[in-house]
Amino acid sequence: MARVKKVIFVCRDNTCLSNMAAAVFEDIRGEREIQVASRGLVVLFPEPINQKAVAILKSHQLTLLSQEATALEKTDFVPGTLVLTMTRSEKQEVKQRFPEMPNIFTLREFTGQEGDIEEPLGGSLADYGACYEHIDLLVKVAAEIIFKEEEDNDSIGL
Question: pTM of the full predicted structure?
Answer without folding.
Answer: 0.93
